[in-house]
Write a structure and sequence with these properties.
Elements (H helix, E strand, L loop, with lengths): L8 E4 L2 E4 H21 L9 H18 L4 H4 L3 H20 L2 E3 L2 E4 L6 H23 L1 H6 L9 H37 L4 H40 L5
Antiparallel strand pairs: 1-2, 3-4
Protein backbone atom coordinates (compact mmCIF):
# COMPACT_ATOMS: atom_id res chain seq x y z
CA UNK A 1 0.00 0.00 0.00
CA UNK A 2 2.95 2.26 -0.56
CA UNK A 3 5.53 3.71 1.76
CA UNK A 4 3.82 5.58 4.64
CA UNK A 5 6.95 7.69 5.08
CA UNK A 6 6.36 9.28 1.65
CA UNK A 7 3.06 10.83 2.78
CA UNK A 8 2.83 14.13 4.68
CA UNK A 9 1.11 13.87 8.05
CA UNK A 10 0.29 16.21 10.93
CA UNK A 11 -0.78 15.84 14.54
CA UNK A 12 -4.00 17.24 15.96
CA UNK A 13 -5.66 16.37 19.25
CA UNK A 14 -3.25 13.50 19.78
CA UNK A 15 -4.20 11.92 16.44
CA UNK A 16 -2.18 11.59 13.25
CA UNK A 17 -3.83 12.83 10.05
CA UNK A 18 -2.86 12.12 6.45
CA UNK A 19 -2.35 15.54 4.87
CA UNK A 20 -2.31 14.12 1.34
CA UNK A 21 -5.77 12.59 1.76
CA UNK A 22 -7.19 15.77 3.26
CA UNK A 23 -5.76 18.16 0.67
CA UNK A 24 -6.43 15.86 -2.28
CA UNK A 25 -9.96 15.08 -1.12
CA UNK A 26 -10.66 18.78 -0.63
CA UNK A 27 -9.43 19.58 -4.15
CA UNK A 28 -11.62 16.81 -5.59
CA UNK A 29 -14.61 18.10 -3.62
CA UNK A 30 -14.09 21.67 -4.84
CA UNK A 31 -13.71 20.51 -8.46
CA UNK A 32 -16.93 18.47 -8.28
CA UNK A 33 -18.80 21.35 -6.66
CA UNK A 34 -17.59 23.90 -9.22
CA UNK A 35 -18.38 21.53 -12.08
CA UNK A 36 -21.96 20.92 -10.95
CA UNK A 37 -22.46 24.57 -9.96
CA UNK A 38 -21.30 25.79 -13.38
CA UNK A 39 -23.62 23.41 -15.21
CA UNK A 40 -26.65 24.14 -13.03
CA UNK A 41 -26.53 27.92 -12.79
CA UNK A 42 -29.17 28.51 -15.47
CA UNK A 43 -31.81 25.78 -15.29
CA UNK A 44 -34.54 26.39 -17.87
CA UNK A 45 -37.32 24.49 -19.59
CA UNK A 46 -35.27 24.71 -22.78
CA UNK A 47 -31.90 23.41 -21.60
CA UNK A 48 -28.64 24.88 -22.79
CA UNK A 49 -25.36 23.02 -23.31
CA UNK A 50 -24.41 22.99 -19.63
CA UNK A 51 -27.82 21.79 -18.49
CA UNK A 52 -27.80 19.11 -21.20
CA UNK A 53 -24.48 17.78 -19.91
CA UNK A 54 -25.76 17.74 -16.34
CA UNK A 55 -28.99 15.99 -17.29
CA UNK A 56 -27.04 13.45 -19.33
CA UNK A 57 -24.83 12.69 -16.31
CA UNK A 58 -27.88 12.27 -14.08
CA UNK A 59 -29.52 9.96 -16.62
CA UNK A 60 -26.25 8.04 -16.95
CA UNK A 61 -25.88 7.38 -13.22
CA UNK A 62 -29.60 6.65 -12.86
CA UNK A 63 -29.20 4.15 -15.68
CA UNK A 64 -26.43 2.40 -13.75
CA UNK A 65 -28.68 2.12 -10.71
CA UNK A 66 -31.70 0.98 -12.72
CA UNK A 67 -29.63 -1.87 -14.12
CA UNK A 68 -29.62 -3.48 -10.66
CA UNK A 69 -32.15 -1.78 -8.39
CA UNK A 70 -35.89 -2.16 -9.11
CA UNK A 71 -37.40 0.88 -10.83
CA UNK A 72 -39.59 1.94 -7.93
CA UNK A 73 -36.61 1.86 -5.55
CA UNK A 74 -34.06 3.68 -7.73
CA UNK A 75 -35.12 7.24 -6.89
CA UNK A 76 -34.00 6.95 -3.28
CA UNK A 77 -30.39 6.32 -4.35
CA UNK A 78 -30.13 8.60 -7.38
CA UNK A 79 -28.31 11.43 -5.58
CA UNK A 80 -25.89 9.00 -3.92
CA UNK A 81 -25.05 7.33 -7.24
CA UNK A 82 -24.58 10.67 -9.02
CA UNK A 83 -22.38 12.16 -6.30
CA UNK A 84 -20.39 8.96 -5.86
CA UNK A 85 -19.64 8.64 -9.57
CA UNK A 86 -18.55 12.27 -9.99
CA UNK A 87 -16.34 12.28 -6.90
CA UNK A 88 -14.66 8.98 -7.76
CA UNK A 89 -14.17 10.01 -11.39
CA UNK A 90 -12.49 13.31 -10.42
CA UNK A 91 -10.48 11.63 -7.65
CA UNK A 92 -9.21 8.92 -10.00
CA UNK A 93 -8.04 11.49 -12.55
CA UNK A 94 -6.54 14.02 -10.14
CA UNK A 95 -3.19 12.31 -9.59
CA UNK A 96 -2.67 11.81 -13.33
CA UNK A 97 -2.54 15.55 -13.93
CA UNK A 98 -1.59 17.04 -10.57
CA UNK A 99 0.88 15.63 -8.07
CA UNK A 100 2.57 17.85 -5.51
CA UNK A 101 5.38 16.64 -3.27
CA UNK A 102 7.53 18.74 -0.96
CA UNK A 103 10.67 17.33 0.59
CA UNK A 104 9.82 13.85 -0.62
CA UNK A 105 6.37 13.99 1.01
CA UNK A 106 3.20 13.76 -1.06
CA UNK A 107 0.68 16.54 -0.49
CA UNK A 108 -1.56 16.17 -3.55
CA UNK A 109 -2.31 12.99 -5.50
CA UNK A 110 -5.37 10.89 -6.36
CA UNK A 111 -7.33 10.42 -3.11
CA UNK A 112 -8.32 6.96 -4.34
CA UNK A 113 -4.66 5.88 -4.44
CA UNK A 114 -4.96 5.41 -0.66
CA UNK A 115 -6.86 2.33 0.57
CA UNK A 116 -8.21 4.26 3.56
CA UNK A 117 -10.21 6.48 1.19
CA UNK A 118 -11.51 3.69 -1.02
CA UNK A 119 -12.39 1.45 1.93
CA UNK A 120 -14.30 4.37 3.46
CA UNK A 121 -16.43 4.62 0.31
CA UNK A 122 -16.86 0.85 0.38
CA UNK A 123 -18.05 0.98 3.99
CA UNK A 124 -20.44 3.84 3.17
CA UNK A 125 -22.02 1.81 0.36
CA UNK A 126 -22.48 -1.29 2.50
CA UNK A 127 -23.92 0.73 5.40
CA UNK A 128 -26.40 2.41 3.03
CA UNK A 129 -27.35 -1.04 1.74
CA UNK A 130 -27.95 -2.28 5.30
CA UNK A 131 -29.97 0.82 6.14
CA UNK A 132 -32.11 0.39 3.01
CA UNK A 133 -32.82 -3.22 3.96
CA UNK A 134 -33.81 -2.33 7.50
CA UNK A 135 -36.04 0.51 6.33
CA UNK A 136 -37.85 -1.77 3.88
CA UNK A 137 -38.21 -4.96 5.92
CA UNK A 138 -37.53 -3.98 9.53
CA UNK A 139 -34.66 -5.18 11.72
CA UNK A 140 -35.89 -8.72 12.30
CA UNK A 141 -36.81 -9.66 8.74
CA UNK A 142 -33.75 -7.94 7.27
CA UNK A 143 -31.17 -9.68 9.45
CA UNK A 144 -32.99 -12.99 9.26
CA UNK A 145 -31.64 -13.16 5.71
CA UNK A 146 -28.22 -13.93 7.20
CA UNK A 147 -29.67 -17.19 8.56
CA UNK A 148 -30.88 -18.44 5.17
CA UNK A 149 -31.06 -21.22 4.10
CA UNK A 150 -30.36 -22.39 7.69
CA UNK A 151 -29.00 -20.91 10.91
CA UNK A 152 -25.51 -22.39 10.52
CA UNK A 153 -25.09 -20.27 7.39
CA UNK A 154 -24.51 -17.16 9.54
CA UNK A 155 -20.66 -17.30 9.56
CA UNK A 156 -20.62 -17.62 5.77
CA UNK A 157 -23.02 -14.67 5.41
CA UNK A 158 -20.82 -12.52 7.65
CA UNK A 159 -17.70 -13.57 5.75
CA UNK A 160 -19.43 -12.66 2.48
CA UNK A 161 -20.16 -9.16 3.79
CA UNK A 162 -16.52 -8.77 4.81
CA UNK A 163 -15.21 -9.89 1.41
CA UNK A 164 -17.65 -7.55 -0.34
CA UNK A 165 -16.30 -4.71 1.78
CA UNK A 166 -12.70 -5.58 0.93
CA UNK A 167 -13.08 -6.23 -2.78
CA UNK A 168 -15.21 -3.16 -3.47
CA UNK A 169 -12.62 -0.82 -1.95
CA UNK A 170 -9.38 -2.60 -2.86
CA UNK A 171 -10.27 -3.03 -6.54
CA UNK A 172 -10.33 0.69 -7.28
CA UNK A 173 -7.35 1.36 -4.99
CA UNK A 174 -5.19 -1.22 -6.75
CA UNK A 175 -5.86 0.19 -10.21
CA UNK A 176 -5.31 3.85 -9.28
CA UNK A 177 -2.29 3.23 -7.04
CA UNK A 178 -0.49 1.04 -9.58
CA UNK A 179 -1.22 3.56 -12.34
CA UNK A 180 0.32 6.42 -10.37
CA UNK A 181 3.33 4.33 -9.35
CA UNK A 182 4.08 3.45 -12.97
CA UNK A 183 3.77 7.11 -13.97
CA UNK A 184 6.34 8.00 -11.31
CA UNK A 185 8.67 5.23 -12.52
CA UNK A 186 8.42 6.42 -16.11
CA UNK A 187 8.95 10.00 -14.96
CA UNK A 188 12.11 9.05 -13.07
CA UNK A 189 13.32 7.14 -16.11
CA UNK A 190 12.86 10.21 -18.29
CA UNK A 191 15.39 12.19 -16.26
CA UNK A 192 17.78 9.36 -15.51
CA UNK A 193 20.10 9.55 -18.56
CA UNK A 194 19.36 12.84 -20.23
CA UNK A 195 17.88 13.33 -23.70
CA UNK A 196 18.10 9.67 -24.72
CA UNK A 197 15.78 8.38 -22.00
CA UNK A 198 13.55 11.44 -22.23
CA UNK A 199 12.83 10.77 -25.91
CA UNK A 200 11.71 7.26 -25.03
CA UNK A 201 9.94 8.04 -21.75
CA UNK A 202 7.84 11.08 -22.75
CA UNK A 203 5.69 9.29 -25.37
CA UNK A 204 5.40 6.30 -23.05
CA UNK A 205 4.28 8.61 -20.23
CA UNK A 206 1.61 10.20 -22.43
CA UNK A 207 0.28 6.83 -23.59
CA UNK A 208 0.11 5.45 -20.06
CA UNK A 209 -1.48 8.65 -18.76
CA UNK A 210 -4.24 8.35 -21.35
CA UNK A 211 -4.74 4.67 -20.57
CA UNK A 212 -4.84 5.41 -16.83
CA UNK A 213 -7.46 8.12 -17.40
CA UNK A 214 -9.59 5.51 -19.19
CA UNK A 215 -9.09 3.03 -16.34
CA UNK A 216 -10.03 5.70 -13.80
CA UNK A 217 -13.32 6.33 -15.59
CA UNK A 218 -14.04 2.61 -15.83
CA UNK A 219 -13.31 2.09 -12.13
CA UNK A 220 -15.74 4.87 -11.14
CA UNK A 221 -18.39 3.17 -13.28
CA UNK A 222 -17.62 -0.27 -11.82
CA UNK A 223 -17.74 1.03 -8.25
CA UNK A 224 -21.18 2.60 -8.71
CA UNK A 225 -22.42 -0.50 -10.54
CA UNK A 226 -21.30 -2.84 -7.75
CA UNK A 227 -22.72 -0.45 -5.16
CA UNK A 228 -26.09 -0.74 -6.89
CA UNK A 229 -25.77 -4.54 -6.86
CA UNK A 230 -25.03 -4.64 -3.13
CA UNK A 231 -27.91 -2.29 -2.34
CA UNK A 232 -30.28 -4.38 -4.47
CA UNK A 233 -29.29 -7.53 -2.59
CA UNK A 234 -30.50 -5.94 0.66
CA UNK A 235 -33.79 -4.92 -0.93
CA UNK A 236 -34.62 -8.52 -1.73
CA UNK A 237 -34.96 -11.35 0.77
CA UNK A 238 -34.79 -14.93 -0.38
CA UNK A 239 -37.58 -16.98 1.13
Amino acid sequence: MGDPSSVATFQFGGLTFNAANIFSGLIAFVLVFLFVFALSRHITMKPGKGQNVLEWLIDFTNGILKGSIPGNETGAFGLYGFTLFLFLFISNQLGLFLQIAVGGKDFVRSPTSDPIVTMTFSLATLMIAQFAGVMKFGWKKHFSGYLQPFVFWLPISIFEEFTNFLTLGLRIFGVIFSGEMLLKIIGNLAFSHGIATMIVAVPLELVWQGFSAFLGAIQAYVFVTLSAVYIDKKLEIEE
